[in-house]
Amino acid sequence: MKQKKIALINDITGFGRCSVTSELPIMSALKIQVCPLPTAILSVHTGFENFFMDDYTDRMKKYIDSWQKNNLQFDGIATGFLGSVEQIEIVSDFLKNFSASPVMIDPVMGDHGKIYTSYTREMCGQMKKLLQFADLVTPNLTEACELLNIPYPAEGIISDSDLAMMAANISSKMRGGKVIITGLSMDFDDGSNIANFVYDAGKIDLVTSKKIGVDRSGTGDVFFAVVAASFLNGEDLTQAVRKAADFVTKCIRHAEDLNLEWNWGLPFEEFLTELK
């Protein structure tokens, strides 16, 4: 059986366990060959006070051109944070040229009801255009609202019926129909939970996990890596989300036990051999 290859479009960060630095080993543990296409090189992620960044925009086209001249093909394409309109346009052209591959997009634009300060209205508009190439998208609630041009709900509280309507509307703009609205805060009788709303061609599921500790950088990247690799391996989408949520929970619990700083990311390394 042929090993599957994924083109992973994201930044490479030296310290902080995020983006390619987290996604590559996790996808590899799930038996996917990862082929990074860097958007930037960072010493540490931007959650640290001092960071060095080498923007890779001017080299991305030559990098892609080399792949094309070598007649490379991929079984999947995954995109993460894109730092400029030009980068989004480069990725759009890349997706057109490799249109046979399933495309998984994490539309990293904001959180907690606010768009990141580095993101402009034009960049948000261009990100919406990428949906036409996507088979799977994983926005959080902030990003889902932005993709649909609707207000963020008061205090981030939203009903299942509204989530279903949002997911269906996002799905209608995509090539494929799979949507996961991630990181939803929900309070049940047994305490605070984090939920992921799964929409798969009309079928809906809600996958919940106990909320543990503080918010930690890189959590979304770890979640996305497990989901994307599992999806590419042909797993049921709800099963993939449950696997990702359980893995993230285990890593967060370990981070709390180690008393790690929030910006050090998730200590996933100890659990890689448990991914199947």
Describe this protein's structure.
Helix 1 (19-29) packs parallel to helix 7 (219-232) and helix 5 (141-148) packs across helix 6 (160-171). The model has no long low-confidence stretch (mean pLDDT 94). The protein has 276 residues and is α/β, with parallel strands linked by helices. The chain is globular, with a radius of gyration of 18 Å. The strands form 2 sheets. Strands 3-2-1-4-5-8-9-10-11 form a 9-stranded mixed sheet, with helices on both faces. The chain has a two-stranded antiparallel ribbon with strand order 6-7. Helix content is 37%, strand content 25%. It is built from 8 helices and 11 strands.
What's the layout of helices and strands?
Elements: E1 4-15, H1 19-29, E2 32-44, E3 53-55, H2 57-69, E4 76-79, H3 85-97, E5 103-105, E6 110-111, E7 114-115, H4 121-129, E8 136-137, H5 141-148, H6 160-171, E9 178-188, E10 191-200, E11 203-210, H7 219-232, H8 237-258
Parallel strand pairs: 1-2, 1-4, 4-5, 5-8, 8-9
Antiparallel strand pairs: 2-3, 6-7, 9-10, 10-11
Helix pairs in contact: 1-7, 2-3, 3-4, 5-6, 7-8
Strand tally, please?
A: 11
Q: Identify low-pLDDT runs.
A: none
Query: Percent of residues in beta strands?
Result: 25-35%
Order of strands across the biggest sheet? Answer: 3-2-1-4-5-8-9-10-11
What's the number of helices?
8
